[in-house]
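Reagents: none. Just compute today. Cytochrome P450 monooxygenase.
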Amino acid sequence: MTWIPNILVFFATVSILTYFYVTRRFNYWRKRNVFYQKPTPFFGNFKDVVLMKDTIGTWLRKTYESAKSQPYYGIFIFDEPCLVVKDPKIIKNVLIKDFNSFSDRATANAEHNKVLRNFLFFMRNPEWKSTRNQMSPIFTSGKLKAMFPTLSEVGERFQKYIGNNLGVIEAKEASSKFSTDFIAKAFFGINAHCFDDENAIFRVLGRKVFDFSVRNGFVSTAYFCMQNVVKLFKLNFTEQWIIDYFADSFLHAYESRVQSGTRPNDFIDLLIDTKKKDFDGKFDINMIKGAGMQFFLAGFETTSSTVSYTLYELCLNKNIQNKLRQEILASIKEHNGLTYDGVLGMKYLDMCIKETLRKYPVLPFLDRKCLTDYKVPGTDLVVEKGTTVYIPLFGLQYDEKYFPEPEKYDPERFLDAKKYNMDGLVYLPFGEGPRACIGERQGLLQSKLGVISVLSKFEVEKCAQTPDPIEFEAKSLVLQSKVGLPMTFKLIVPSPA
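Predicted 3D structure written out:
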């Protein structure tokens, strides 16, 4: 038994060496005189996200609040030091003024997948810039106005669905049907039949992409915070067969439109026009497939979340609901129906949507990769090339310094929305600067149409199953309620003459 002490010494030595290896960088921020969250071995500050007890967004909000008055602070994702920026002026530098030093996202870029690597969201420069320039004309206000009659038809189907299912309806699922039908019509040129078929293929695949599975939770976290894992195991953001279905469906719709020559005023027509202007030949089949997949993923969750969370807040705040309905009905009467200009003129609706996106930003954080050694203006801090920088939207948009009574749903705070981003940036639901969301106009229009479709015919009320407060699902990258958003839908009773 004389070998036992040797074994114990061996394991003790290995344990000590392992400990020193995994903690070797934990003095990184201390050496730079930067306030930082105390890390733990192996996990850094990332333990609750790894164990799926927290979403990335809610975790960053907690770190934001614990950093108090610091302009920025350090965190560790496992052993990697990352910087989280709180100060609005520094955020403006990162996203706008010094954009060239932070033009890439820190997310994995899926180079292994010929479709996913063409997602504008994941692209690096210079490919990102050239692709963005090609696609920007697709989302102009003039193009959206031309498509409005086609898109408003989906709102009418949404109304019919609600009318046929009065009572308790899960608003997130209903909004997801609306969002899926909208995207199918606008981007794929088809009716997805989500309102009349529970097994409609587009809706089934949409559920699969965003369900609360361990697989989805792990992969989405890996894309944003464990990029080397994505590269090593060639992880796809969603399952390959789903990517293939959407990509091939969009390519089929695109090629059919090219052959037929018809122009029903949708995004396929605009993409065809973009392809014709592609003089360097880079806008190939895989880029077209990538565009179709991105249109679905980006447009789906933005709209379904914004519509359902707006309805949720309105069911809890009947006075706001009634005021918004009055504006909607007055606009419809003034314009002899629902029109594009009428929607843009609904100021209170715009305020309500903005307040929803403050409380429930779809992606509750931004990330950037520092591309050069960067000295933060007015400080001694030099951010090293390769450092990941996070901007915690969920923390900023609940900071009472900028938004008094942040838990309160108060659209009136957006009477003057520009004030929040005058000197710095604190309200960022679509990002800001050159890498701001390219589909912001389309997403806002889509969300407004969804809310109008409901409130112009129905009222929403809290029911016994309505969560209050909401508990967010930790396995979801975006902010989703664990139990959905059930509420009661009732037909509006006309006032007596």
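The chain has a mean pLDDT of 92.
Action item: order primers for follow-up constructs.
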